[in-house]
Design goal:
- By secondary structure, the chain is α+β, with helices and mostly antiparallel strands.
- The protein has one domain: Alpha-Beta Plaits.
- Strands 1-3-2 form a three-stranded antiparallel β-sheet, with helices on one face.
- A hairpin with a 5-residue loop joins strand 2 and strand 3.
- Helix 2 crosses helix 3.
- The radius of gyration is 15 Å and the shape is globular.
Length: 111
């Protein structure tokens, strides 16, 4: 029964992630084929609310599968995820976006 209740959560998450994946693909492809580049690459540290290895693994892999971001490392205490992002105009805004759009959804899906 518990698994059946997660199906709507999973479907909402899948739609959200596929939309974000499409947006990221379009942004990177546009930057690749136009003469003007808008990249502002940077490494950022994201404090994690995720507690289990599975939650951290899922978030890190979703970030890596999204064009323009790659998970680089996780702190030894599993409290910080380090990412490299291609488009960082405001590190705090990107950190907030990842925490509130991605991490919170991953946690709702996993818990």
């Amino acid at each position: 029964m518990k698994t059946l209740r997660k199906i709507p959560k999973f479907l909402r998450f899948a739609i959200f992630y596929l939309t974000e994946l499409l947006r990221a693909n379009v942004r990177v492809a546009h930057d690749a084929v136009t003469p003007t580049h808008y990249m502002r690459p940077a490494f950022i540290a994201i404090p994690l609310d995720a507690e289990t290895d599975y939650e951290i693994l899922l978030l890190a892999n979703l970030m890596t599968m999204t064009p323009g971001t790659v998970s680089v490392d996780v702190s030894t205490d599993n409290k910080v995820l380090y990412l490299h992002a291609m488009y960082v105009e405001d590190a705090d805004a990107l950190r907030h976006e990842i925490k509130h759009l991605f991490e919170h959804r991953v946690l709702r899906l996993m818990r």
